[in-house]
Predict the 3D structure of the following.
Amino acid sequence: MTSLAGKSVLLIIGGGIAAYKAHELVRLLKTRGAAVRIILTKAAEQFVTPLSLAALSGEKVYTALFSLTDEVEMGHIQLSRSADVVVVAPATADLMAKMANGLADDLASTALLATDKRVLLAPAMNVRMWRHAATERNTATLKHDGVTFVGPNDGEMACGEFGPGRMAEPNEILTAILDMLKPKAQPLAGKKVVITAGPTREPIDPVRFISNHSSGKQGYAIAMAAVELGAETVLVSGPVSLAIPPGVQMMPVETAQDMLETCEGEMPADIAIFTAAVADWRVASEAPEKLKKSGDGPPTLRLTENPDILATISRSPNRPKIVVGFAAETERVSEYAARKLKSKGCDLIVANDVSKGSGVFGGDRNTVHLVTASGVEDWPQMSKDEVARRLMERLAQMLVPQQKVAK
């Protein structure tokens, strides 16, 4: 029997007659050793009680978004992110519509919007609701966003109708959870991955600097994905306000020159991924003291070009087997990325549109285009975590044939 010891499941129970199956699901999860926290929607309380679920789970059952006690003990953000997987069973048409459209008007929908973990839905509704065009659109959107589904099954429903819409059985949902939480293959075990992230800061004087809006979120997500695939992961990061991903060797830097020297010191590596938004220019001569206002107008700053980290590593004697650059563009994204691929000498460019209104800088979602010598592959918009997972899986696949040839 596969154990879930050390794993945590957040179970969100929607308001449908299938909610009664949640008791058996909780029992199965507890039998496997999982910790189970539960959110009940207001409608779900009409079918099952917090008391019965608390008794089965051994945990407090959460129902209200605005509870000062709950916010002190377990805020809704932490509740949504402390689990290893979020399961919605039953996932009603209403909950699915809220998820697909980013609505958050109760604890369940807020937790779903705030989570950064994988989500599993077990839909349950009348066959006509399941086949309605709106539900079909919402299902397509949620799958596009990376949500996993189990069911619905065909069968007789409480309303007396027969067809798709019956919630998957608890053992089916358990199997889907086990599949989502099973240890991942680690194709990058024994391999070294170096990743740059965040902005650089180029000093003007002791209190001012040139920088940009990069949050570092995409680079940090890629570092986490590399660790999950077993890589020795070095993260060379400019100044950001993000927690260091577990298992990552952190190398903090400030300037482009610092970043280049640190990257060179980490060579050789199997894969190098340059997500950092490096300042193209720096002040030729940093002022030793704070520049003061004067009646003569603003000071003249003479700029000089920063080192090209991507091109330098791509052409170095210790070149990694795979070198990946990022291209943050505001227009003609794929065209400029293709030019960059040739000029920098790297193997792949991940291009994205960071123009005003795109929400990429500082946001949690991204739309990227993979540019190689063979063409452009357009990826749909997805979370930065999902971009990171898919990218690292692709790079691992690219590395394997090279290893086979080397043998």
Observations:
- Residues 403-407 have pLDDT under 50 and may be disordered.
- The first helix runs from residue 22 to 31.
- Residues 8-181 form a domain with the Rossmann fold fold (CATH 3.40.50.1950).
- The CA atoms of residues 120 and 148 lie 5 Å apart.
